[in-house]
Amino acid sequence: MFITFEGIEGCGKTTQIKRLVDRLGEFSIPFVLTLEPGGTRVGKDIRRILLDSRNRALSNLAELLLYEADRAQHVEEVVMPALDLEKWVLCDRYFDATTVYQGYVRGQDMALIKTLNEKASFGIWPDITFVLDCPVEIGLFRARKRESGRGGHPEEGQDRFEREEKVFHEAVRKGYLSLAKTDRKRFVVVDATLTEDELEEVIFEHIRPYIQK
């Protein structure tokens, strides 16, 4: 079982993935919790480049290729071995993020992105993808609050994407909602303005049938 979580900055993906992990533990389901970018040792180095707010000059094509390089390493080193062992894989972002951020928003060639996604993922698609949807104002407020809670100034802790203009994040949200309409069987759009407890229950209701199988 391969489950991915997507959404704008501050939508609550990380919190809900951790909560789902706790729920799976109640059923003794073996799992691997991972993320993109940065799910491997090599990926952590790539992640630092991609999210460093000082790298404003990083070209759109270079950004795309770095994400795909991270994905190729991640799938081969983490995702495929876990699935081969019949473990569940929970991943914070996957190739849908590339389609949205680098395709819908950055304007990179969609045919190229599709080809690179297929190659880098070795053809492995998620069984279910949750898109946590909320207004941009709410997401950015949460993201900045999170950084403040870590002891730094909100703007100092922001990564390269959080520092983008509001119009960028609006385009990301629109991109995810548009993409979700292309595959209603795989994508599940959930209301990320719900409380954490309420959202956890909504997500788990979609997971429960897989556990019962």
Helix content range: 55-70%
SSE order, one letter for each helix or strand: EHEHHEHHEHHHEH
CATH topology group: Rossmann fold
Number of separate domains? 1
What is the CATH class designation?
A: Alpha Beta
**Shape, principal axes of CA atoms:** globular
Specify the structural class.
alpha/beta
Q: Proportion of β residues?
A: 5-15%
The main β sheet shows up as:
5 strands, parallel
Strand order of the largest sheet: 2-3-1-4-5
Q: Residue ranges: pLDDT <50 for 5 or more in a row?
A: 151-158
Number of strands: 5
Radius of gyration: 17 Å
Features:
213 residues, alpha/beta, Rossmann fold, five-stranded parallel β-sheet, 9 helices, globular
Describe the structure.
With 213 residues, the chain is an alpha/beta fold. It has a single domain (2-212), classed as Rossmann fold, CATH 3.40.50. It is 57% helix and 13% strand. The chain has a 5-stranded parallel sheet with strand order 2-3-1-4-5, sandwiched between helices. It starts with a strand and ends with a helix. The radius of gyration is 17 Å and the shape is globular.
Compact summary:
This protein has 213 residues and is α/β, with parallel strands linked by helices. The chain has helices at 13-26, 41-51, 60-84, 95-105, 110-120, 136-149, 154-157, 166-180, 196-212, and strands at 2-7, 31-35, 88-92, 128-133, 187-191. The chain contains 9 helices and 5 strands, in the order βαβααβααβαααβα.
